[in-house]
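Sequence in, structure out.
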Amino acid sequence: MPKRALIAIASLALLGAACVSTPKPEVDYGVGARFVPFVVDSTDDMGQGDAVAFSADGSPYIAYFGYPAIVKEGDIAIPRPFGSPAVPGVMLSTSSTDGIWQRGAVNTTEPDLTATGVSVPFGPVLTPALDLAPANSNGTAVVVADDGTVHVAWVMGAGVYHASTKLGGSSVVNQVFDFGSTVDQAGPIGRPGITLDGDGNPWIAFTVDSSTGQQVHVTHPNGDNWVDQLAATTAPCNGCASPQPTGIGVIGGVPVVVYADPSANAVTSAVLDGSTWAPVPVADEASGLGLSFAAAGDVAYAAYFTGAGSVDVATFKDGAWSTTPVHAAADPDPSAVGSSAAGTAVAVDSAATTFVAWEDGGIQLASGSATTSFALVDLGHTVTSGEDPALAASDAGVALSWYESDQQNQMIGFWGDLQDVLVAQPSPSLTISQGPPPTAECGKDKKVVLSEVAKATAFEVACLVAPAGQPFTLTFDNEDAGVTHNVAIYTDSSSVDNLFSGDIFAGVSTVDYKVPALDAGTYFFKCDVHANMTGAFAVVQGAK
């Protein structure tokens, strides 16, 4: 993996949420290939239906759904940082040139924050009562044009949607397909695929249930309108699996669509020939569950569960398909839909090595040649509760993104030979306080303590002490890069009666708060942005 991409992506911390700081230590991973995982987004339930793509300069872009967090009994919910995209929403994040993740969205329920001067990355379209929930959504797809324009497709409710945007710009969202009736559960519309033609125009493919069988649609813009073409129709099939993901790419200048045909227990493709789509068989006796697709030059690749206890990859070259077994894998549940359905992912790097990922007791990854054999890649323990794998490859290397279901986090990992390249330590886990520290000893020695540090979404000092009856200066060092914090003082942990609120600011930075005189007593301090950051504040007569 080239140094340029790794340094841009990982030389500073890839923030694990809007609430994880930049670790200062560096780690030399030595000689040989390594898998380095990072948390991309963790505040609330982030990462279902994710997709990943590289830009021309090697920056990763990740599209995913964001939902309100599911808080387990006894846990404390972490509030969303001010200015973050609201949930539910169609999220989009990328790594900036200095290695900091910028978390934005293309479509959210967020209220208009223009008057406050808050700018959410990618300028999301704000939709009141956005019809997006885990039950009625079915995945995203993302591709980045050479000029930096990002195209995202997704399924929510009864429609297929497309958004185009740029970092620093505003999103434009269009519904490109309407199912025509209310959809409360994912399934009638399969997960979409997206690609760009030679002119940079997006083409979106997806499969839809109908009374005459499953219909494979391809839609693309024509001026101000979107043209919807029917690329294929499968035979009616009672009891068959719902529409699977549909892949699309431009191979040799010609659009190619790959889809599962449950009525024939086969995987099939369709190639645009003039104005019609010509069918080209891919594989017989294959369920095609969890299908994924990638294109590299004049070659296309499709990975899928066979339904016979394995994952296969098919290669399209010179107008014909050939298949190669990848690895044994448990057959997924054919009745599962949306985020519950197991998936695969496929990508090819600049050395023509093929990577295939799939769900089987967590995320599995294998690499090899699509015409010979594959070997498992050691990903470590970070992927054991992973779902929804997505892969991308370029000269920058290989990126694997996934949804970490236990912590409800969007994750990404980079695979490559990291020899001679120093990368930051993986982002630390969030530290959740269970309440303020005991107050009995706080201030008992009458020693003034008026310096606080925020690091990894936690206060380092649990007891602050100030002299009674006189103004004082509280120095606050926010070491969480790009993350907003403050220190506010309240009469008690109910946080109802505020005595002082310091300005909220982003790290890395230090601010001296000028606090007016307070009466002697034991109070409570916290960060107004993050409810888990708390401590005891003692105001003591005669403190020095």
